[in-house]
Amino acid sequence: MRREEILRLLKIQEIDQEIERLERHLRKVREERERRERELAGVCEEETSLERKEAELTGKLRSLREKLSEEEDLLEKTERRMLAVRKDHEYRALLREKAKHEDTILKLFYDIEDLERKISEFREEAERRYPLLKRKAEELREEIEELIDEENTVINRLKNTKEDREKLIESIDEASLRFYNEAKGRFGTTIIAKIEEGVCTGCGMKIPDVLFSKLVRENSIERCPSCGRYIYYRL
Ligand SMILES: [Zn+2]
């Protein structure tokens, strides 16, 4: 292959390596964003569950207070009826009814007291928890915004790099391109490898001294005896 063709392929290779790097970066940024989105969903869910719990407790309290007030009404009615009855057994029956209402009322008092204490404990905990959740959610939202910005920057850069590649490909003849694409399947993204400290950066093997001297002396492009990649020392 002619030297100019290889130099063009080297440019394509650099672009392909850049595309690969950008795609890797994009995947990482997306994973980070998704991780934070899941975390944010968890924070929001905890907020909602605190609100739900509070509504549930206050609902229970309301219904206990309603029951108490009904029971107090019933007690009052029984007491009024007791004033009106003449017969002994009726009076005794009402007395039992009265005692039953009083028992229920007492029990409701205790239940309400219990629940009120529970609610106040819950509120204390919730008051402590809400600001933490709010701050965490704000932090996460900011981080997500930043990651979306970064994502868009990388997407744009990828688009531009791919456009550069399209343009460059037009200047490369078909046979070279076919060679490049086939070699890519075999070698990965490094098809034309730089020699560093006498070692092929494509396969990691040391090249013979004679070959190394030639590369240094002539700035030529050769093939690596170990892997077959095109190699150069300086272009
Ligand atoms: Zn090699």
Reported by name, the CATH topology of the domain at 27-172 is: Helix Hairpins
Please tell me how large the radius of gyration is: 41 Å
Mean pLDDT: 96
How much helicity do the residues have? Answer: over 70%
The shape is rod-shaped
Beta-strand percent range:
5-15%
Report the end-to-end length measured between terminal Cα atoms: 15 Å
Instruction: Please identify, by name, the CATH architecture of the domain at 27-172.
Output: Orthogonal Bundle
Q: Which kinds of small molecule does this entry bind, naming each only once?
A: zinc ion
Largest sheet: 4 strands, mixed
Low-confidence stretches: none
Extended strand count: 4
SS content category: mainly alpha
Question: In the CATH hierarchy, what is the class of the domain at 27-172?
Answer: Mainly Alpha
Oligomer: single chain
What does this structure look like?
With 235 residues, the protein is mostly helical. The protein has a domain at 27-172: Helix Hairpins, CATH 1.10.287. It is built from four helices and four strands, in the order H-H-H-E-E-H-E-E. It has helices spanning 3-84, 88-170, 174-187, 209-218; strands spanning 192-196, 199-200, 221-223, 230-232. The chain has a four-stranded mixed sheet with strand order 2-1-4-3. A hairpin with a 6-residue loop joins strand 3 (221-223) and strand 4. Helix 1 packs antiparallel against helix 2 (88-170). It is rod-shaped and about 130 Å long. The two termini are 15 Å apart. The mean pLDDT is 96. Bound molecules: zinc ion.
